[in-house]
Amino acid sequence: DVVRKIAAGEVIVRPANAVKELIENSLDAGATEITVTIKEGGMTLLQVKDNGTGIYKDDLPLVCERFATSKLRSIDDLSRMTTFGFRGEALASIAMVSSLNVTSKRRDAPCAYQIAYKNGAMTGRIRPSAGGDGTTITVDGLFEASESRRAALKNHAEESARVIDIVAKYAVHRPDVSFIVMRDERGCDLRSLGTGKREDVLGVLYGDELCKEALVLRLNDPTLHFEMEGIMASPYSIHSAEAKDSKRKRNKQFVLFINNRPVSCAVLKSSTEQTLASKGLATTYLMMALMIDPSRVDVNVHPTKDCVFFLQQDDVTERIQEYLDAVLEADIN
Ligand code: ADP
Ligand code: MG
């Protein structure tokens, strides 16, 4: 049991980690609406509600078992899914360190069913429950058994900010999905509408004036085995006084997804930032989503490390730099 708890602690160290995993599950289930509710930074309540496929009643007792996954169906899946991190461990890891409730309804089921866990063990049996199509995972008292962990996470404002930040990243990555964050019963902290347009999401997140001239990015390089799409907010379209305001500085961000996971990649980050800075665009918001042939991505990176390596990293980076350069030149002229 100790080993299991240590493993869980490695993966889920703060509320935002749990939110990331739950969102990923909702997206895997084909959800088009995802609502995240948090109280006290997610420490007293953290809930992710989706309208995805739902879970079969008979599968409910399995979802919080370690290595329980419904997502490995073929070799092809295996190479796709194991590109990053661990499989079938997320829910188990969260359940291990909290009180967790799963309520889920498949479209073809007569009603929803729910199951509850406390510190990794099922409490009671499966019960019918109210609830619409989809899945709601409710996590109460995250790390309730670990005083030291709770103490380390006592800055609830910071934990809230991290949760909102991770949801915002997914919202930009998946403009076709509507994301909502509700915090401390104060109403809505973030709401993307799922219009399918990244520029709409950016507008909602950071203000229309920053984003109305956003540049949509798209690059396909079969030779280097990658595709990239993304968006860059072009603050240089707003001049002088405004360009110096502090809101703008907060908007400087570099968001990277590789094969649908938010990751970091130091080489890519520093080189693109250099390209932007050379154009006088040091405060640009840039989001890029790369799809790279999974066989070319290093799968041996530890699940908790989000730093990614892939083949021909320097060539890919250079190609992206060239592309951004061309896009910016074209836009300025
Ligand atoms: P993995 O996502 O790697 O399969 P998880 O521990 O995250 O492992 O989830 C375990 C299983 O629970 C999933 O494979 C899936 O079958 C089911 N599941 C979890 N969350 C949802 C959800 N929101 N909607 C539908 N099924 C889910
Ligand atoms: Mg998962």
What keywords describe this structure?
eight-stranded mixed sheet; Heat Shock Protein 90; binds adenosine-5'-diphosphate; five-stranded mixed sheet; elongated; 333 residues; Ribosomal Protein S5, domain 2; 2 domains; alpha+beta; binds magnesium ion; Mlh-1; 35% helix
Question: Please, could you describe this protein's structure?
Answer:
This protein is an alpha+beta fold. The chain folds into two domains: 2-191, Histidine kinase-like ATPase, C-terminal domain (Heat Shock Protein 90); 202-332, Ribosomal Protein S5, domain 2 (2-Layer Sandwich), CATH 3.30.230.10. It is 35% helix and 25% strand. The chain has twelve helices and 13 strands. The chain has an eight-stranded mixed beta sheet, covered by helices on one side. It has a five-stranded mixed beta sheet with strand order 9-10-13-11-12, with helices on both faces. Strand 11 (253-258) and strand 12 (261-262) form a beta hairpin. Residues 78-85 and 236-249 have low confidence and may be disordered. It binds adenosine-5'-diphosphate and magnesium ion (MG). Magnesium ion (MG) binds at residues 21, 24-25, 90. Adenosine-5'-diphosphate binds next to helix 2 and helix 4. It comes from Pristionchus pacificus. It is found in: Nucleus. Belongs to the DNA mismatch repair MutL/HexB family. This is Mlh-1.
What is this entry, summarized?
This protein is α+β, with helices and mostly antiparallel strands and 333 residues long. The protein is built from 12 helices and 13 strands.
